[in-house]
Design brief:
The protein is α/β, with parallel strands linked by helices. The chain contains 6 helices and 10 strands. A 10-stranded mixed sheet has the order 1-8-2-3-7-4-6-5-9-10, with helices on both faces.
Length: about 210
């Protein structure tokens, strides 16, 4: 049975977020609000939790999962970033963008793309999620909370609780999210002198990226 944490969107209660962090440390999946939509998050280094994350979404290993990072220093720890890529990242973070980059050895093989060895990374602009990441002290592995067979992400915490309460450790309710997916940009072509490739147009403006 999923725990339900109602937190203030601008001044989240630390004791509730600490309880959520404890659940993540025990291998639980937690539904978290972001600056785009609600997402499912788990501990990066917990294989069973990652497998459960994929089962809930019903996606295979070729589906890009995303690392939610606190800042660009964390991004550069888990992805290979050259100067051009870094300037683009700096212009767009924090914000509703997901960037595909070549994963470093710090990323477990089971969570990077099996053929491309890439990983999705982003620095969210959401007070509650940022506080959660700070308390956790490391990135969280996440995927947008889109129910199997559907195309739209869930945006109501109570609905998430009702539909997934037996599969989740907790739901963090901070109110409705913007309900628009992140803009996804593949930055790996920049490593060979090519332009970034927009994989999905979402909430993040391409103009901010100079694209």
């Amino acid at each position: 049975m999923a725990q339900f944490f109602e937190v203030h969107p601008e001044n989240p209660q630390q004791r509730l977020l600490k309880q959520a962090v404890a659940l993540l440390a025990r291998g639980e999946i937690v539904a978290v609000p972001t600056d785009s939509s609600y997402a499912l998050a788990c501990h990066l280094d917990d294989k069973d939790a990652v497998d459960q994350l994929r089962r809930i979404r019903q996606v295979d290993e070729k589906h890009h999962l995303t690392l939610l990072c606190r800042d660009l220093r964390e991004v550069s720890h888990y992805a290979r970033v050259d100067n051009k890529q870094y300037r683009l990242l700096k212009a767009a973070t924090p914000g509703p963008y997901t960037f595909l980059l070549e994963a470093t050895k710090e990323v477990p093989r089971r969570v990077s793309h099996p053929q491309r060895k890439t990983i999705g990374l982003r620095v969210p602009d959401h007070k509650v999620l940022c506080e959660l990441l700070t308390l956790h002290g490391a990135p969280l592995l996440a995927t947008t909370l889109i129910p199997p067979g559907e195309t739209e992400a869930l945006n109501d915490a109570q609905t998430i609780r009702e539909r997934f309460e037996k599969q989740l450790g907790a739901v963090i309710d901070a109110g409705a999210c913007p309900s628009e997916p992140t803009t996804v940009v593949d930055l790996t072509p920049m490593g060979t002198g090519d332009d970034p490739v927009v994989i999905r147009m979402g909430r993040g403006s391409l103009a901010l990226l100079g694209l």
